[in-house]
Write a structure and sequence with these properties.
Chain A: It catalyses: 2 a quinol + O2 = 2 a quinone + 2 H2O. Chain A: Belongs to the cytochrome c oxidase subunit 2 family. The structure holds three protein chains of three kinds. Chain A is an alpha+beta fold. Chain A contains six helices and twelve strands. Chain A folds into two domains: 111 residues, Helix Hairpins (Orthogonal Bundle), CATH 1.10.287; 167 residues, Immunoglobulin-like (Sandwich). In chain A, the strands form two sheets. Chain A has a seven-stranded mixed β-sheet with strand order 8-5-1-2-3-12-11. A five-stranded mixed β-sheet of chain A has the order 4-10-9-6-7. Chain B is mostly helical. Chain B has one domain: Four Helix Bundle (Hemerythrin (Met), subunit A) (Up-down Bundle), CATH 1.20.120. Helix content of chain B is 81%, strand content 0%. In chain B, α1 packs parallel to α6, α4 runs antiparallel to α5 and α5 runs antiparallel to α6. Chain B is elongated. Chain C has a domain of 286 residues: Cytochrome c oxidase-like, subunit I domain (Cytochrome C Oxidase, Chain A), CATH 1.20.210. Chain C has 21 helices and two strands. In chain C, α4 runs parallel beside α6 and α13 runs antiparallel to α15. Classes of the chains: A alpha+beta, B mainly alpha, C mainly alpha. Chains in contact: A-B, A-C, B-C. The interface between A and C is large, with 95 and 91 residues.
């Protein structure tokens, strides 16, 4: 077991060296969820490299040993049907590997789908993250503020992102804090993340949603809880309120840069969850919105 | 074409056997087609938006008529095949004609049913539920309609050419198709209408 | 005026205008050429109306190669745009259209016809049949595929290309967000060619189950035939799902229904589910016949029988079954919860086991063999290591928690290219070199062939290995550009160099064909590779009736038995041979389907109705027609055979 970890560390150094100095974002986790995923990735790279190595060695051996040029011209290859023993090994070992990886995969999946163990005792911060072409709206219902295209979060506290979309399917992704999840028009997805350290992180929509997709990014700033509280206060003191009219102009397709508001759109346009769940509501906000757009 | 007298007429040549097996494989594909439509229907059945639910629009009378007619037509085409096996070409043609007439009556009922749905505000565009419902029913109805025309061509050939390995083969395959549509209808009746009305 | 505006390209560029001119000139050149050389009659009699499975196979092959270059041109444009940060070679919309058509063309109109080409050409020969079960339907299959391909390919000069990705996720693909008619083209091109594929599926299953030579039991079928059988069973069960999904998508776009909309109860997730219930089995439809070709080639050039025949068959059957149980892994991040993800994670990784069995069986086929490095063998030996890399990254992607990080990134793009290119494209190129002498009666140049193989293999690694890295560094797929600060530049530049290498490789392939047509010696004999299976028992090129006498088979390697174990392959006397008649109706029906699709794309209802009626008239004609076929008399068979065999021996 120890040896395999050594090999893993060796591998990760190789991967790191390959990229010059900066480690790859996904393999440079800054939160517990991303850590789980990075660990799984490195483990699977290790095991898979081992399998690749076996195949390469076997192939090289066969090709070197059994080339026609190395054999007498009258050599007649034998007729070999196959052997149960070999088959059992060829099935058995992969089954064991797959079983082991399945175990890890299932365990990790439950981990990333719940509040990080490390911060269980903390009260999670709930942020509604919704997309419209091609921007992100972040609503902080408890703080009663809303931002566009940037995100402030307290470090060392679990965050529950409630994801949904005004339009095409998008995917909320902050590689260094954890893997992505879809934001869709029809239901609200929950993504559990947390940042271990204050810092700046890259966030983006990872799922193709049309012309403005490449620039569909947002900045994430993780700060201490105190700094976060100060920021909230400052926003409440200085930002203008988010009116329904203002929000509808924000929803129009395009790029709008960053902005900050007091109040959230959740009060007049609730997220498609619970009673507002997509499958029961009739003509949705989007259609209203689309028809409004046509009127303009 | 070698004709093997020991086999029933519809199986008597190599090509006939290929045709029948090919049609069974085609029915396999059709099962997947309707299976997918049913899967889509079950996913969307409660997603009625502003439109009506199934319980609000389904009417038992035309559906019972449709079921009765289609089941009867399945029986009559079975009698047609029985007559074919016995070599009673005339009886066979009459049973086929009867089957097709029942098919036309079925389609008429279905057209009435669709008009009723549109009348009560459940058109193709109303909601995901109505779209799935009308598409599933419509696909079955289109199959029956196609079958009626196909059957007419077969009856014409039976009259013109009599019972040959080719016409027997075509008639037999058509009967498979017709029975299959009947089976699909039983599923529609049970899982769309009955389940929707409860 | 507004009516005609729909036919204009929504995002014109120099490249598109140049392509329009090029297409126009090519069409004129073809028409003039055919007229000048008086080849219209030849084209009509020998190709457009043919029902011969070999001719149809060759037409599939030509189409596949054409589409390979179409999709390849898309690829090189994408890689060029991505080669440096903040590039402005293409704008966002143009880039979106290009990656959409690249994916669609490569999967549906390149890889599919390539395997169809080999299935059509080889399967009947391998089982000792004289044609497929339904030759007329076979021609129809081809023309439906071909017209579907043409429909997609005219999109970029009339009305605009599809731009919602080859996965075409709704609601992005709906009218609101994809406004040109491009997505309509996608829906109808796939619908029409999908119908053709389904018909092929039925045709091939019946052919393989009912038309095998005497003595060839199921467990004595050559491996390529087995793989084709399994792939066609998957086709029959997977393609109807696509049919329904496409129909619903079409209704949403043309008739304003609410299947996949965001209002009135529509469900965008349903499309993704339907698409991948078809889409994942589709991958195995492509790769299993490719595996079959590798099995034939590796066994032939090791001079040995295929190791573990039974487990090869068993693993394919298991793969085909599992392929329907893994579709959710294409969207682990959709929020279906840890339990669902766990189940699909396990089924996904489980596929690695039968696939691994196949790899090991190939390796053990080499064992104690006498390995000859011909071009097809070289491709196969380059396939094993590169495919293994692609395959194991698939297992990594199958781990659902980690997939949250891989999903939608270049890592995924690298994975599926590293699977499909070595798995399918190398196999098709290997098969092309391997079966070329059977199809055309001369060999492709071995020296150029080997150079090509090495260049293509190394370029594949160069083009796609860097994507694993940039994916892990956070590069999402389908971005038309990125800033220099991301640090993706280096990796994308290496990919671009790899793409250039691939271009050179494929140009060399064409050069090889031209070179070999001119200089390659004819009279290579019926069995130039010292092969083992029945297709090599026919003369090359194959006479249209395939086998003069019905072969009798006692093992999986009928020809080997005949050559080295005194098995009498053709014990029967000459008999007259029944063959199907040619027909122009499949071609005509294909043309009508093209017009039908085109009318639908633009919502032109009167032509739609007329073409629909046309389709039914063709079907009615087929119902009433008497088509007894014809007999080739014994004398004619004898003279043909002595001419073909005599010139060789």
């Amino acid at each position: 077991m120890k040896k395999s970890w050594l090999r893993l560390i060796g591998l990760s150094t190789i991967v790191t060296m390959l990229t010059g100095c900066d480690p790859l974002l996904v393999l440079d986790p800054k939160g517990p969820q991303a850590q789980v995923q990075a660990k799984d990735i490195m483990l699977s790279i290790g095991i898979m490299s081992f399998i690749v190595l076996i195949v390469f060695v076997l192939l090289a051996y066969m090709l070197v040993k059994f080339r026609a040029s190395k054999q007498s011209p009258d050599y007649k290859p034998p007729h070999i049907k196959g052997s149960t023993k070999v088959e059992i090994i060829c099935v058995g070992i992969p089954v064991l590997i797959v079983a082991y990886l399945s175990f890890i995969s299932v365990e990790s999946n439950y981990k990333v789908e719940s509040t990080p163990e490390k911060y269980k005792q903390e009260e999670p911060l709930i942020i509604y993250a919704s997309t419209s072409n091609w921007k992100w709206h972040f609503s902080y219902p408890e703080e009663d503020i809303e931002t566009v295209n940037y995100l402030y979060i307290p470090a060392e506290r679990p965050i529950e992102f409630k994801l949904y979309s005004y339009g095409p399917i998008t995917s909320f992704w902050i590689p260094q804090l954890g893997g992505q999840k879809y934001a869709m028009a029809d239901m609200v997805n929950t993504l559990h993340l947390a940042a271990d350290l204050p810092g700046e992180y890259m966030g983006r929509n990872a799922n193709f949603n049309g012309k403005g997709f490449a620039e569909n990014t947002f900045n994430v700033t993780a700060v201490t809880q105190d700094e976060f509280d100060d920021w909230v206060k400052e926003v409440k003191a200085t930002a203008e309120p988010l009116t329904e009219e203002k929000f509808n102009t924000l929803l129009e397709p395009g790029h709008v840069g960053q902005s900050t508001y007091t109040g959230t759109h959740l009060t007049f346009l609730p997220a498609p969850e619970g009673e507002n769940g997509g499958h029961q509501h009739g003509t949705s906000h989007i259609k209203d919105h689309a028809s409004q757009q046509k009127d303009h | 074409m070698k004709i093997d007298q020991s086999l029933p007429l519809e199986y008597s040549t190599q090509q006939n056997q290929l045709n029948i097996l090919g049609f069974w494989v085609f029915i396999g594909a059709e099962i997947m087609l309707f299976g997918t439509l049913f899967a889509g229907y079950f996913v969307l059945v409660d997603r009625t938006g502003n439109g009506p639910t199934g319980a609000e629009i389904f009417e038992i009378t035309p559906v019972l008529f449709e079921t009765f007619i289609l089941l009867t037509s399945s029986f009559t085409i079975g009698l047609g095949i029985h007559a074919m096996r016995k070599g009673y070409t005339k009886a066979m043609i009459w049973f086929y004609v009867l089957t097709l007439v029942l098919g036309v009556v079925f389609i008429s009922f279905e057209v009435y049913e669709f008009m009723h749905y549109i009348h009560v505000g459940a058109s193709l565009q109303t909601s995901a539920f109505t779209a799935a419902l009308l598409t599933t029913l419509g696909t079955h109805g289109a199959h029956v309609t196609f079958g009626v025309f196909w059957g007419m061509f077969i009856v014409y050939q039976l009259i013109q050419r009599g019972l040959t390995p080719e016409t027997a083969n075509k008639s037999f395959i058509f009967s498979l198709y017709w029975h299959f549509l009947d089976v699909v209808w039983i599923f529609i009746f049970s899982f769309i209408y009955l389940k929707g009305m409860v | 005026m507004e009516y005609f505006e729909r036919f204009a390209i929504p995002h014109p560029s120099q490249a598109i205008y140049a392509s329009m001119v090029a297409i126009g000139l090519t069409v004129i050149a073809i028409i003039v050429g055919l007229t000048y050389f008086k080849k219209w009659g030849y084209l009509w009699r020998e190709w457009l109306t043919t029902v011969d499975h070999k001719r149809i196979g060759i037409m599939y092959l030509i189409s596949a190669l054409l589409m390979l270059f179409r999709g390849g041109a898309d690829a090189i444009m994408m890689r060029a745009q991505m080669a440096v940060p903040d590039n402005t070679l293409l704008d966002a919309q143009h880039y979106n259209e290009i990656f959409t058509t690249h994916g669609t063309v490569m999967i549906i109109f390149m890889a599919m016809p390539f395997i169809m080409a080999f299935m059509n050409y080889i399967v009947p020969l391998q089982i000792g049949a004289r044609d497929v079960a339904f030759p007329r339907l076979n021609a129809l299959s081809f023309w439906l595929f071909f017209m579907g391909a043409m429909l997609l390919n005219i999109s970029f000069v009339i009305g605009g290309s599809p731009d919602a990705g080859w996965t075409n996720y709704f609601p992005l693909a709906n009218n609101e967000f994809s406004q040109s008619v491009g997505t309509n083209y996608y829906l109808f091109a796939l619908q029409i060619s999908g119908l053709g594929t389904l018909i092929t599926g039925i045709n091939m299953i019946v052919t393989i189950l009912k038309m095998r030579a005497p003595g060839m039991t199921l467990m004595k079928m050559p491996m390529f035939t087995w793989s084709s059988l399994v792939a066609n069973v998957i086709i029959v069960f997977a393609f109807p799902v696509l049919t329904v999904a496409l129909t619903m998508g079409t209704f949403d776009r043309l008739f304003a229904t609410n299947f996949f909309t965001t209002s009135d109860g529509g469900m965008d997730m349903l499309w993704a589910n339907f698409f991948w219930v078809w889409g994942h089995p589709e991958v195995y439809i492509l790769i299993l016949p490719a595996f079959g070709i590798y099995s034939e080639i590796i066994s032939t050039f090791s001079g040995r029988n295929l190791y573990g025949y039974k487990s090869m068959v068993g693993s394919m059957v298991i793969i085909s079954f599992l392929s329907f149980l893994v579709w959710t892994h294409h969207f682990f991040t959709m929020g279906q919860g840890a339990l669902t993800n766990s189940i699909f994670s396990i089924t996904t990784m489980a596929i690695a086991v039968p696939t691994g069995v196949k790899i090991f069986n190939w390796l053990f086929t080499l064992w104690k063999g006498k390995i000859v490095f011909t071009t097809p063998m070289l491709y196969s030996m380059l396939f094993i290591p590169t495919f293994t890399i692609g395959g194991v990254t698939g297992v990594m992607l199958g781990m659902s928690a980690a997939d949250y990080q891989y999903h939608n990134t270049m890592f995924l793009v690298a994975h599926f290219h590293m699977v499909i290119i070595p798995g399918v494209v190398f196999a098709m190129l290997a098969g092309l070199h391997y079966y070329w002498p059977k199809m055309f009666g001369f060999m492709l140049n071995e020296k150029i062939g080997k150079w090509t193989a090495w260049i293509i293999a190394i370029s594949t690694l160069l083009a796609f290995m860097p994507m694993f890295v940039s994916g892990l560094d956070g590069q999402a797929r389908r971005m038309y550009t990125y800033s220099a600060s991301t640090g993706f530049g280096l990796w994308n530049m290496i990919s671009f160099i790899g793409a250039i290498g691939l271009t050179i490789g494929f140009i060399l392939l064409v050069y090889n064909v031209i070179y070999s047509i001119r200089y390659s010696p004819r009279n290579v004999g019926s069995d130039p590779w010292d092969a083992r299976t029945l297709e090599w028992a026919t003369p090359s090129p194959v006479p249209y009736y395939n086998f003069a006498k019905v072969p009798h088979v006692i093992s999986t390697e009928a020809l080997w038995d005949a050559k080295y174990h005194q098995h009498e392959l053709f014990p029967e006397p000459y008999e007259k041979i029944h063959m199907p008649n040619n027909s122009g109706v499949p071609f005509l029906l294909g043309c009508i389907f093209f017009a039908w699709g085109f009318s639908f794309v633009f919502g032109m209802w009167i032509p739609t109705i007329l073409t629909t009626i046309g389709i039914f008239i063709c079907m009615a004609h087929r119902s009433l027609e008497k088509d007894p076929g014809h007999y080739v008399p014994v004398e004619k068979v004898k003279t043909t055979e002595s001419k073909l065999r005599g010139s060789q021996l």
